[in-house]
Specification:
Blueprint: H1 12-25, H2 30-35, H3 39-51, H4 61-74, H5 78-85, H6 95-101, H7 115-127, H8 136-145, H9 148-171
Length: about 190
């Protein structure tokens, strides 16, 4: 249960927009509904979500999926893990890779990860640390595998998931049930309300 409930009545345009998004995803989006208390936050978040990278030649969908799921685990957001892990086999991710993103298996021990993917995941780990801190080696690796544009795509994708994770966690929004069939996610381990 979230910390607060959404408004009982939503303005018509917000209600229509939410209905379309929820129909496409097949789930009720409690976080978005709660944001209707402050429509500017809902609209701004929606615009940001509409503009995030989905299929870029330099940062393909599989790598974007790895980044999104890695951030979700690093910031311990059960909703984000649930959302970003949906249909993980269809995104080309294995259970072993998910265990690596959880820190249960060293990334270097996962043969299916390319050196480019490992470089991006190390960079993501630095972005998600507090304080944010990068070693020269991590930056060198990123620059050797990605153009400036690619680095911005990786960084902005990471920041976008961080934004949603912090917002969703601050509202106490539980997982929506996108990935309930996947035991390897251990969603209960990432609960933020103790």
């Amino acid at each position: 249960m979230s910390y607060i409930e959404p408004p009982r009545r939503l303005p018509l345009m917000l209600r229509l927009t939410l209905s379309l998004v929820e129909k496409r995803l097949g789930k009720r989006l409690l976080a978005n509904r709660i944001l209707a208390w402050y429509p500017k936050a809902l609209i701004g978040s929606g615009i940001m979500e509409a503009l995030v990278a989905h299929a870029e030649p330099e940062v393909p969908p599989r790598l974007l999926a790895l980044i999104r799921l890695s951030v979700s685990f690093l910031v311990s957001c059960p909703f984000c893990i649930d959302m970003n892990a949906r249909d993980f086999p269809g995104k080309g991710l294995s259970e072993e890779e998910i265990k690596g993103l959880q820190g249960l298996v060293p990334l270097d021990a996962i043969a299916t990860l390319s050196t480019r993917e490992r470089a991006a995941l190390r960079y993501v780990g630095c972005i998600c640390s507090t304080p944010v801190s990068f070693t020269p080696e991590v930056i060198r690796e990123m620059r050797s595998h990605f153009s400036e544009r690619g680095i911005v795509i990786v960084a902005s994708t990471c920041a976008q998931v961080n934004f949603w994770a912090r917002l969703i966690q601050s509202l106490g929004v539980p997982p929506a049930g996108f990935s309930t069939e996947c035991a390897v996610l251990n969603l209960e381990k990432y609960a933020t309300l103790k």
